[in-house]
# Entry
Amino acid sequence: MIKDAVNHLKKARRTLIITYIIVVAIILNILLLLHGVLFNFISSLLFSYESKSSLSEIGDSFGVINSIFSICAFLALAYATWLQDQALKDARASLNQQNENLIASLETLKISSDAQKRIGYGTTYNHIVSRLESEHQRQLRGKLYTLYETKKYDSWEQDDKEIAYMLAANWDICGMLAKSTDLPDRYLAEHYSRAIIGCWICAEKAITERRDHRKDPVLWQGFFNLYEIARLHRVSQDLPAITFTFK
# Structure
């Protein structure tokens, strides 16, 4: 802050000097011009021809003085121009420095933002894992797999369907959490693609029936989004497809 204030004062002083020099140069030239005109006019009125010859010499001396002042005025203008050029160079340097400081600040903010995002990702991922790794969810997944492999869907009881509904709701919450925090797809796909795809395959008919019953085609859409992410992940990694067979 103090450095900026000092630089501002220097620039203001330079501007004042430039303005002063230009004004003085203009005034000197005007005075010298008026002086020559007045001198010639007065001499023509007051002095004889013989006197005018001697006065002309004096006038010539004023002409020399006028030339000297003109040169001084030219040098003053040249110096003023140089000062202005230096001021512009300083302004450009200051602007470049400000741009560099701004870029550095933006990079610092980006690093801080990325760090906060990673912290947020970790928090969200841990919360999702705690939901998926609970003993209750593990038991439900085991029951759903067994149902799918041992009973055709037409013979499922309502309690069997409720197992699919509870798992779908839990996966849906996990999908919405991941989407709301922009959690990278790989966080869940790398560790839970098998569980996600397996649960979707086993529960898909129950989910479709529930959607039709409620007339809500996007019911548990978060679960479906996770399924698509997991499926694409396994395809991109050349992992084997997940299948279930009836016993």
